[in-house]
Amino acid sequence: KAGVTQTPRYLIKTRGQQVTLSCSPISGHRSVSWYQQTPGQGLQFLFEYFSETQRNKGNFPGRFSGRQFSNSRSEMNVSTLELGDSALYLCASSSTGRDLSYEQYFGPGTRLTVT
Amino acid sequence: QKEVEQDPGPLSVPEGAIVSLNCTYSNSAFQYFMWYRQYSRKGPELLMYTYSSGNKEDGRFTAQVDKSSKYISLFIRDSQPSDSATYLCAMSGRDDKIIFGKGTRLHILP
What we know:
The complex is a heterodimer.
Chain A: E1 5-7, E2 10-13, E3 19-24, E4 31-38, E5 42-50, E6 53-57, E7 64-68, E8 74-78, E9 87-94, E10 105-106, E11 110-114
Parallel strand pairs in A: 2-11
Antiparallel strand pairs in A: 1-3, 3-8, 4-5, 4-9, 5-6, 7-8, 9-10, 9-11
Chain B: E1 4-5, E2 11-14, E3 19-25, E4 32-38, E5 45-51, E6 54-58, E7 61-66, E8 71-76, E9 85-92, E10 98-100, E11 104-109
Parallel strand pairs in B: 2-11
Antiparallel strand pairs in B: 1-3, 3-8, 4-5, 4-9, 6-7, 7-8, 9-10, 9-11
């Protein structure tokens, strides 16, 4: 079974621009979660999508948004980029049903650098 | 006080030694406790998952949860150089939001 894939793997953007990151979950997985990882703050939860609906959200500003498509693929968008948005963005998928499953499988991440 | 505290290390131990990794937390509502391993340039990989208190063993890995002390541990027996990685604790409560520790960098010296 193929793992979680994320594209692109590396991205360089300038302040003020916007960016869209993509995540393809493991086949059959319907839940996709997004995380931001930085050396200072560690791994922080952004949001979770299940069956095209946002089911849970972390404490990030509205510049961070996401969506999920009918095939469970998910995209995350960050508008008006700031230097502090430089981070590794990780996507995780799970085959959860009604409740959040803790057996999450992470992708390799997208390294975003904002200059 | 941060919700989850984890010593960043680095922790260096000789091959074959027993490794002890720990996290403390402040939220008594946490019920689910996880340990992830993250190699450089890779995403985290779930190692152990425990519900509530007690011990759980899986091969060379043992996870312990002490809810009365708000303290969780991961023990690695017969440590190998391939165990060198960053280990992240994570926990969650009724709101299903997963809170991660910042990770401990572990080096196993051959």
